[in-house]
Amino acid sequence: MFYLQHGFGKGLKVSHLNDEGYLSGMILSPAHEDRFQLRETVRQCHDMGVDVLVDPQSYVYSLTPTGTGRQHVEHGLDLTDLHWSQTADTMKRHLDAVRRANEEIGIQTCWIAPSPFQATLTDFWLPIALQYARTAASEWGSERTVASLVLDENLLSAWSSIEEWLDILTTLEVKGFYLVVNRNRAQYPPLPWVPEALANLLRLIYTLTEINGYEVFWGYADTDGVLGSAVGATGIASGWSYGLRQFSTARWNEKRSGGAPAVPRVHLRRLWSQVRWNEAADLFDSVAGKKAFGPRIRKRFTKSGFESLNNTMAQEQHLSVLAERIAALDAKAEIADRLDTVADSLEDALEKFGKIAEEGIALEPRHASRVRSYRDALELFRKSESL
Length: 387
What we know:
The chain has 387 residues and is of the alpha/beta class. It is built from 14 helices and ten strands.
């Protein structure tokens, strides 16, 4: 299922995506809208039959230096006393605050529990993270509780330590998990995954969902979320802006001034890539490159060139392609079918990149490198899980 990761500037994107029939839910940010605005967003989602969850964003208070959320005070979620040595009373107060924040904007059915950010699986935050999940399930009920897993990508390097952690994690009596992974370089398009790390992330999702029966919602995902959907993720959440497609702890404790506007990008499904509009124009004018465009996008840009693309149009196009792709995988009941579909598509994309390079078209090198990392990670996953 496809979920929208909420932030600034949603405009009509929610209703437009819902009209296409691909939107299952939305994960709201209490940092980006005040209580009145967020309540109205919840009402609109419920009217459309769209599921709603709130990310309590407690992890920002475990960062060094401590992060800040712009509207957290308004929602009663300014959890600045979060500490690895906190008392049980403090933990309960945090859980009560999360519950009130949900109830006051109209969410009664399912709540994401708070959690600190985990840089490793051996630091002092690990027992606190587990205890938040256990206590939330006890206070709210297991069927209402979604535990948070907020991890650094470096944590995914060794499966042996993840496997030991999973032995504990799978004892939790919760509905599921909200999974967020910090990428160490906050740039877009993101750097390619280390294949072993992404493969271990896919194994983590697969173990929780397909083997243990939990729901898993992967937040701040991008095209890599398609792989997560293939291995069993319940929901993939992505957003319209680049910061909502890749999680980075830096955004919570950096003071950023305005910069140059984002360059509009075209999501080319056949290349598994979001290319700059001028790259898309170069591809469209070439024999090999034109094969990267499906009939719909060819029709759209044959009359009006790619220079007509603005950021709002680019954002909506990206979300539509991603949501449609995930819906197509959801329609395949067997995991083997989903994995074969993704693997074949990745190989086809790499073949197209090869022919594009032979024709002498210069593309940002990271496009092909990312697709290669997806292909390699999927192969490692399938080998490890004998799928």
